[in-house]
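Protein in question reproduced for absentees:

***
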Amino acid sequence: MKDPASLKSSNTHDKLNPALYVLSLSKLFKDLGTGMLAFLLPLYIVGMDSNIFSGTPIVFRAGLIATVFGLSNALSQPFFGRLSDNLNRRKPFVVMGMAGFTLISFTYANTSNFDYMILLRIVQGITVGATVPAIVAMVTHLSSKSTRGTAIGIYSTVRGFGFGTGSIAGGVIASYFGYVTAFYVCALLGIASLILISFFVSETHNGQPSSASSQEPAKGFQFIILSVAMFMMMTGIMIIFAFLPEYESRLGTGEISLSIAVSAYVIVRVLFQTPMGILSDRLGRKKIIAMGLLLNIPIVIGLGYVDNVTQLIILRAIQGISMAAVETPVMALAVDLAGIAVSSKVSSITASQAAGMALGPIMGGILAGYISFELPFYICAVMLLISLLLVIVGIKEPTDSQVRTTG
């Protein structure tokens, strides 16, 4: 018979910390603004003057404006993750990132040159990169092994809801009030998140300072595989942002219809994020990750052959299921493997995700602009197949005892 004290401890570990909801809701407004910008900027830069990129295809420019953000975001995350672990502080990085996001969003409204837009997007990517590993660490500090998938699923659901509805909100505001108004709204949303984070979110800390000792080679290899999986998934998902101007022309549609297509992915992903986290807690992370990768292969090929906006919306919605099946279990498994230094180690996963956001649009823009419209979708499918095989062969989930030892 179990000791009552141990039963009480077990029940405590199975419950989610209410602070998780406060953190997630505090970041919601900034995520709403992020979704607006991701959708609006590739359309806003059409027809802009440029000294450096004059004469380049519009799909290349649309891909570039998305790529520089993802690339600067990806490169900055490992640095900020290590710094956060060394200082054993997270909240200052989140506050700094929110402030940077707000300022740059306001500046977009007063910029009419494509070259300056690229520079601003790079700076904004760095500021957002400061927040990502810190927030992921805070989420993991507020959860246990038995609730980690659920906790990450809830956080990702709230974040995804903001990003998804942001695209629709951006399309509506731009259609009726103009792009400048939309950028001011993004800045106001950033201010709202900044206030909530500053006054209502408490700092979290590791149980002890992070160790400088190297991780086991087997775990290091699994981190590489998880990073590759996230990179491939985001490449296949973000590629669509290079094609927004092309879809607008080919499908004979406008900003609102395109914003629905973009948001369909995120909204469905939001609905499935927490269920996939719960499934990964119960069935294991590896099975769910493999299922998501497999599902996304035919979807990305189909995106190259849509004939109308309805088909685009349906495919993007199914893609939301596939991403939910990969993102939440990957992050939960990475935390299980990471041990104490969550920010620095898990930042390799989040940085790979941002790198996929960077590669997808620019790869699609270059290949579609200079070779063929369909080719980038086939390349994404091959990349997904490679990552699926790597997950099947190379991923081994830690036991509960191993997680307790490392964490």
